[in-house]
Write a structure and sequence with these properties.
heterotrimer, A mainly alpha, B mainly alpha, C alpha/beta, A: mainly alpha, 0% strand, B: mainly alpha, MetI-like fold
Chain lengths: 259, 256, 363
């Protein structure tokens, strides 16, 4: 029994552990080679993270930053999922909106900032607006592409079985779209987390963004990387959560999970 | 035949209608707000025509875009195989997923000082920025696509005696194609934006000019640069789609 | 009277841009394969081209230094025009010098002192200009006098807490008898974004360059509320910096001296010659409308910078351990310098001494 259990354990965690170990080693080496003011090695960064966690500073900042992130992301989902889906299924909607969506998608965030400042100010509303603007285009593109590619045979099969419009939607389109809905959610969530920090750097500096700015101007690399590492872990957690959600919602999807 | 071309022109008309509405809204909002807050389309159009003819902006833009292609190409070259590998092989998924998930949420802007240390402040810096901004999104899209390939197709190919490479070409690639196209489009948008951002950190070329517009009280120069970027984005995406249509004609036909 | 390179440079730009484009078409095809990695070495043969890293905007106050590095340095035997890299922000300039990406940085004293305190091996070797070209512009109705900056509900936007734009605000408030701690500060990176925030009424006072202050005031509801050179007569802020190890190398030290000497010569030309200044402004300034300006339009700016700001001290005499030390209390008050920094060690006066000797010799 112990032998079999040990083998399973290694198979499950081996690649992950190895990959993380390699990454950390590279970072540690790089940290020793570059000047201290530029790149702190993992040992110091983790020490700082632990200190910030213990003092309660890190959780508080993260919670405060999450507010505008969740608000912006929520709004983005409400807008992007239906619009993207319609763009994928209804040709004239796609032709109408496609140039506008693509045009908006091409704009770098930093260029939008002055306009957002003028219309939404410098605080919470502006941050929500930025998160929204950064998440929406990616989600629309992914939703539209996915909706377009729903296997036509499934749709035809439904129709030939006499399914009405509502049934068609619930029994065929909805399940078939779940995979790319989750892709869209993942991409959107990633953009939203990115935007969460960007908003706090470009507008009035608050929460995690302010912490990063302060560390940067004091050349405190450990502090800066501690915040970045926290964001990376938060992003990882969110994406894993979405992955679990997908497995629960669409278990029939063949994938590598069981292989 | 006539029906198909009629519906194509109808489609184009709808697109133009959408753009026209947007422009009208822009003009009205601009006049209400004033040039310092949101220059109306007419002001921006005038500025745009001046910029097109000045002999500096367009070549600078062309140079930037060409240099961007290196980072973008690298992003595709690394991202697609990696994503497919992760999608089909459990060990690859477990090994790389944490890093992909962590890197994709990292704002490239935060890495700029480190990138300057590693790559200096020239072409390789900009290429690194474009690469880092692009590759993770390509990996994610390819990964999602590769996960969903119906194993029955794989089984059928194998039972016909197809080798690994043939299976890849005959089954994987066509099934992956939509995801690869999406990955390439998403990647391209991020690449163009990253190129501009890199040029705003080490000021040069188009991004440098965009930075300069901040010094002007009227928003017309800023909006003019944004308009140019939007046109480039639309053109680039259109070009990509055309390329995709040439590489995989069946894909276009199967679409709605 | 246009100097060498001025107008010719501008005329060549359009066609050279096209040439650059064509060169890149070929270059991308070949270069993508070659992948040379972080190749920061320049051409080893030929005149030495010093790599200067500076901040993005060039306006009136920066012009003599930029012109000196781009032209006057090239007139010195053995040296070509400096390779000027523009970076987005002052801290990035300091970081890029620390990392060796550039030879000499045109940065600011606060960032440099902080980096030194964090362990970086940096030396301050000269000035790229004295004092600052910024004024504080405020909303007339909201902020009638400097004391009102700290009023309830009034918001001032600066670059970032503890930088020199923050320090600039402290003394006027002190002089007006107001507690600086009551100042309500918003950090907005980017002078353009700060200006828009002011125009949109989101903030009530921002630092703006002299060059644009007049335009802003003409918009109607704004006025200049603080002129820093009146508050801080001696304010050595825009310093030239380099790595100590780089400077100690006998191959590099003459280059540093040459650059500082060229900068001093640039100051002298600017102080003496409005036409020279105008021509350089039109070539190097990063304003979109720079080509519409002429000598008479620039005269008020030039006279203010030269006489009242004393921006171009010909022997950089305004940079010394004493002048920096005088500012330290204000740096501490703005929380810009948490600890003591050994200024004598940070500032290397010998480069300026050698540069002055060179100028005296050539005179």
């Amino acid at each position: 029994m112990p032998g079999r259990f040990g083998k399973l354990h290694l198979q499950a965690w081996g690649p992950q552990a190895l990959s993380v170990a390699v990454g950390l080693t590279v970072w540690e080496i790089a940290g020793r080679l570059t000047p201290a003011a530029i790149l702190a090695p993992p040992s110091r960064v983790f020490a700082r993270m632990a200190a910030m966690l213990a003092s309660g500073e890190l959780p508080a900042l993260l919670a405060a930053s999450s507010l505008h992130m969740l608000a912006g992301f929520g709004l983005a989902v409400l807008v992007a999922v239906p619009i993207g889906f319609l763009m994928g299924r209804v040709p004239w909607v796609s032709r109408l909106l496609d140039p506008l969506v693509t045009a908006f998608y091409s704009l770098p965030t930093v260029a939008l900032v002055p306009l957002i400042v003028i219309w939404f100010g410098l605080f919470y509303a502006a941050r929500v607006a930025l998160v929204f603007c950064m998440a929406v285009p990616d989600m629309i593109v992914v939703m539209a592409a996915g909706a377009r590619d729903i296997d036509q045979r499934l749709v035809d099969a439904g129709r030939s079985l006499g399914a009405g419009w509502m049934q068609q939607f619930r029994k065929v389109l909805l399940p078939a779209s779940l995979p790319f809905v989750f892709t869209a959610l993942r991409v959107g969530a990633v953009r939203a987390i990115n935007a969460m920090i960007t908003a706090e750097l470009f507008f009035a500096a608050v929460n995690l963004g302010a912490s990063m700015k302060k560390a940067a101007s004091a050349f405190d690399s450990a502090g800066l990387l501690a915040v970045l590492a926290t964001l990376c872990l938060a992003g990882l957690a969110v994406q894993e959560l979405l992955r679990l959600l997908e497995t629960w919602a669409a278990p029939w999807r063949q994938g590598v999970g069981n292989g | 035949m006539a029906e198909a071309s009629a519906s194509r022109s109808a489609g184009r008309l709808v697109s133009l209608a959408g753009i026209a509405i947007a422009l009208v809204v822009w003009e009205v909002a601009g006049r209400a707000a004033g040039p310092a807050r949101f220059a109306p389309f007419s002001d921006v159009a005038r500025e745009f025509l001046t910029v097109l003819g000045d002999g500096l902006t367009l070549p600078a833009l062309g140079t930037s875009l060409l240099q961007m292609l290196v980072g973008y190409g690298a992003g595709l070259a690394v991202g697609v195989p990696l994503g497919v590998l992760m999608g089909r092989q459990a060990w690859a998924d477990r090994a790389f997923q944490p890093w992909v998930s962590m890197m994709v949420v990292t704002s490239t802007a935060a890495l700029v000082p480190l990138l300057i240390v590693l790559f200096g402040t020239g072409f390789w810096f900009r290429t690194a920025v474009v690469f880092l901004a692009t590759v993770w999104y390509v990996v994610i899209t390819a990964y999602q696509g590769a996960r969903g390939i119906d194993p029955r197709y794989l089984g059928a190919a194998r039972s016909f005696g197809a080798g690994d490479w043939q299976t890849f070409r005959m089954v994987h690639l066509p099934a992956l194609f939509p995801y690869l196209m999406t990955g390439a489009s998403v990647g391209l948008a991020h690449a163009i934006r990253a190129m501009v951002m890199a040029e705003m950190y080490v000021l040069i070329g188009f991004g440098g000019r965009l930075q300069q517009t901040g010094l002007s009280i009227s928003t017309a120069p800023l909006l003019c640069s944004l308009l140019l970027l939007m046109l480039i984005g639309v053109a680039a995406t259109g070009g990509l789609r055309w390329l995709g249509g040439r590489m995989a004609p069946w894909y276009e036909e199967a679409r709605a | 009277m246009s100097g060498p390179g001025g107008r010719a440079t501008m005329r060549m730009s359009a066609s050279s841009s096209r040439r650059v484009l064509l060169r890149n078409l070929a270059g991308v095809a070949a270069g993508g394969v070659l992948g040379l990695g972080a190749c920061r070495r320049g051409d080893e043969s030929g005149p030495r081209r010093i790599g200067v890293h500076t901040v993005g905007s060039t306006l009136g106050i920066h012009t003599p230094a930029i012109a000196a590095w781009s032209e006057l340095l090239g007139e010195v035997p053995g040296y070509g025009p400096a390779t000027i890299t523009r970076l987005d922000r002052l801290p990035v300039v300091t970081q890029s010098i620390i990392s060796g990406a550039g030879d000499i940085g045109d940065g600011d004293i606060l960032t440099t002192l902080r980096a030194i305190r964090a362990g970086a091996d940096l030396k301050i070797i000269g000035l790229s200009y004295h004092s600052t070209g910024l004024v504080i512009v405020a909303n007339k109705g909201r902020v009638p006098t400097a004391a009102d900056l700290a009023a309830e509900g009034t918001v001032v936007a600066i670059n970032s807490r503890g930088d020199f734009t923050h320090v600039l605000l402290l003394k006027p408030l002190q002089d007006a008898g107001v507690d600086p701690a009551r100042l309500n500060i918003l950090e907005i990176g980017g002078s353009g974004d700060r200006m828009r925030a002011l125009l949109a009424g989101r903030v009530h006072a921002v630092p703006v360059h002299l060059d644009q202050a007049a335009e802003l005031v003409a918009q109607g509801d704004f006025h200049v509320i603080i002129e820093p050179w009146q508050v801080f007569p001696t304010f050595p802020c825009a310093v030239l910096l380099c790595r100590g190890a780089w400077l100690a190398d006998p191959a590099n030290r003459p280059a540093a001296v040459a650059l500082v000497a060229a900068t001093m010569r640039g100051f002298r030309r600017a102080n003496a010659d409005l036409d020279w200044f105008t021509d350089r402004y039109r070539t190097y300034a990063t304003r979109p409308d720079r080509e519409k300006l002429d000598a008479e339009t620039l005269r008020p700016l030039w006279e203010t910078l030269r006489d009242r700001v004393r921006a171009w001290p010909e022997r950089m005499e305004l940079l010394s351990p004493e002048t920096i030390q005088a500012l330290v209390p204000f740096f501490r008050q703005a929380d810009a310098l948490p600890d003591e920094v050994d200024i004598e060690r940070a500032l290397d006066m010998t480069v300026m001494d050698d540069a002055r000797r060179e100028l005296d010799r050539d005179a």
